[in-house]
């Protein structure tokens, strides 16, 4: 297996030929969303009377990851990932006093540990002439990051803008996922496909109201999800490869319930994220590689764009 082919497989699949891999990475993503809020009524079927607000949230996410992968045998591999997130959120509200020229804004910045995850990979079948490399995985996510509940909300002096004083860095619940990945080499190209299903374990919180005024204890069940990715990569030389991929994830609707009450589904909590990515891998030394990628969000639930830079060192 050539060096560029090994690098491509390591980023899109799993490679069991290296005993230990330590990867450090940095990624940046930008997300912008606008919501038009009408508070009033329509008179004479044509004239709106009331308050008009155009709210905008802009989020800049900077994430640092350290990932370790240990190959126990040619068929078993273990992984541990530790993320650190720094978020810069800008909240804007236009339409104060029914004026399109007046707006208020607030900025909230936080740097916090994210949700730590661990995974186990088992190689079901090695690649053959007529069969792809087939790997099964099980992953678990721990709620080590700041959850999005129990966060206090504050309002501007006019009451036109309401925003949280902190930003979350985790889901707030344990998560388990399982799936498989396939990779087939057609020299000089590699085709890969991944499919996973994830469960989120219901978690109890002291306040699920989202108001931050009076504690309303209850339980939250984040929606399960299914995701897949597929792509194609080319080894253009012994040390460099280029690739493109498509990733999509479907989240089910989140449910919540107050203590001793029935479950209630939260409207608009189901999401669909999709990203089209382009990347390049370059072998810097015998053991160190540099992996670059750029992703474009294709749905409103996805960051507008993402940029990442990874440096896997393989022992």
CATH topology: Porin
CATH architectural label: Beta Barrel
What is the mean predicted local confidence, pLDDT?
Answer: 84
Poorly predicted regions are: 36-52
What's the CATH class, please? Mainly Beta
> Could you tell me the strand content as a percent range?
over 45%
Order of neighbouring strands in the sheet with most strands: 1-2-3-5-6-9-10-13-14-17-18-19
Radius of gyration: 23 Å
| CATH H-level superfamily title | monomeric porin ompg
One letter per element, helices H and strands E, the order comes to HEEEEEEEEEEEEEEEEEEE
Biggest sheet record: 12 strands, antiparallel, barrel
Which secondary-structure class do the elements indicate?
A: mainly beta
For the secondary structure, the number of strands is 19
How far is the N terminus from the C terminus? 16 Å
Shape: globular
Approximately how much helix is present in the residues?
under 10%
Question: How many independent structural domains?
Answer: 1
Number of helices: 1
Overview of the molecule:
The protein is mainly beta. Helix content is 3%, strand content 63%. It has a single domain (3-314), classed as monomeric porin ompg (Porin). The strands form three sheets. Strands 1-2-3-5-6-9-10-13-14-17-18-19 form a twelve-stranded antiparallel beta barrel. It has a four-stranded antiparallel sheet with strand order 11-12-15-16, with no helix packed on it. A hairpin with a 5-residue loop joins β15 and β16. The model is unreliable at 36-52 (pLDDT under 50).
